[in-house]
From TrEMBL:
Stored Pfam families: SUR7
Start and end residues of each stretch annotated as Disordered: 216-249
GO cellular component, one term: plasma membrane
Protein origin, superkingdom: Eukaryota
Swiss-Prot/TrEMBL keywords: Membrane, Transmembrane, Transmembrane helix
Transmembrane domains' residue ranges: 7-28, 114-136, 148-169, 189-213
Name of the protein in question: Actin cortical patch SUR7/pH-response regulator PalI
Protein source organism: Penicillium daleae
Annotated InterPro entries: SUR7/Rim9-like_fungi
C-alpha cells in the first residue's frame, strides 16, 4: 500500500528533527563539561612533549580541551570557531615537537575555520525545513518547499562534513607520523555523517510526498472522461436502435 502525503511528510519531519539533534550535539561539543557534550571532539592527540600543551589534547568547535581522569573533555573558556593550528598562539604557541605539516601553512587553520559558518548556514535551512514540514503533510507546495530547504541544508551540511573529515584526518596522520598517537572523534564523525544521511532521506521523502496524488488524479480524470465518452456513445446508439424498431401496435 503506497504511503500518503501525510505519512511521507511525517517521515521527512522525523529525519529532519533527527539531523538537527545530531548537528547540535556536534556543534556544542566542548562548549560545556557536561554529558554528552564532553564526549564530542574532532581530533585527539598525545601532545605531552609540546611545551605548554596538555598531555592529551582534543579539538572542538569552541576550544582546545585536555582529558580528565574519566576520559572526557576538560575544557576551559570557549572561543567561537576554534581552529586546528598547533604552532599558532591560538593553540600551543610554539613549533617545538609540532608536526612539520602544520608549520608554515594556513591550510589547517582555514579549513577548520570554514567549518563553523557552513554548519550554521546548513542548520538554519534545516530548521526552516522542519517548520515547513508541517505543511508538507497536507499540501504539495509544502512538500516541495520543505524538500528545497532540506536540500539547501544538506548541501551545506555535506560541505561541513567533508571539510571536517579532510582536515582532521590529515591532522591525525600528521601527528601519527610525528610519533604522537592520534585519533579522530568517533562520536563527532558518527553524528555528522548520520545527520547528512538523514537530510538526504528528508529531501527524498518530501519530494516523493509532493508527487503523491498527481498521477492518480490524472489517471482517474482521463478514465472518467473516457468512460463518459463511451457511455454517451452507447446511450446514443441505444436510442437510435429504439427509433429504428417498428412499432408492434
Amino acid at each position: 500500500m503506497p504511503l500518503s502525503r501525510a505519512s511521507l511528510g511525517f517521515l521527512g519531519l522525523f529525519f529532519t528533527a533527527g539531523a538537527i539533534l545530531l548537528i547540535f550535539f556536534t556543534l556544542l561539543g566542548g562548549a560545556r563539561n557536561s554529558t554528552p557534550l564532553n564526549e564530542v571532539y574532532f581530533l585527539q592527540a598525545d601532545t605531552g612533549n609540546i611545551p605548554g600543551a596538555p598531555a592529551t589534547s582534543r579539538w572542538t568547535f569552541w576550544n582546545l580541551c585536555s582529558v580528565n581522569s574519566n576520559g572526557r573533555n576538560d575544557c576551559g573558556s570557549t572561543h567561537v570557531d576554534f581552529p586546528l593550528d598547533p604552532p599558532s598562539s591560538r593553540n600551543f604557541g610554539t613549533t617545538v615537537n609540532v608536526p612539520p605539516e602544520f608549520i608554515g601553512t594556513n591550510h589547517y587553520f582555514l579549513t577548520s575555520r570554514f567549518m563553523f559558518p557552513f554548519i550554521i548556514i546548513g542548520l538554519f535551512f534545516t530548521t526552516l525545513s522542519l517548520f515547513t514540514g508541517l505543511l508538507a503533510m497536507c499540501t504539495r507546495f509544502g512538500s516541495y518547499l520543505s524538500g528545497f530547504l532540506a536540500w539547501l541544508g544538506l548541501t551545506f551540511q555535506t560541505i561541513t562534513t567533508c571539510l571536517m573529515t579532510a582536515v582532521f584526518v590529515q591532522g591525525r596522520n600528521a601527528f601519527n607520523r610525528n610519533g604522537q598517537s592520534s585519533k579522530v572523534g568517533t562520536k563527532a564523525y558518527a553524528f555528522m555523517w548520520t545527520a547528512t544521511v538523514c537530510l538526504f532521506l528528508s529531501c527524498l521523502l518530501y519530494c516523493i510526498g509532493g508527487t503523491v496524488g498527481r498521477k492518480d488524479s490524472g489517471y482517474s480524470g482521463r478514465k472518467e472522461r473516457r468512460r463518459g465518452f463511451f457511455s454517451s456513445a452507447r446511450s446514443n446508439s441505444v436510442k437510435s436502435q429504439k427509433k429504428e424498431q417498428p412499432s408492434l401496435a
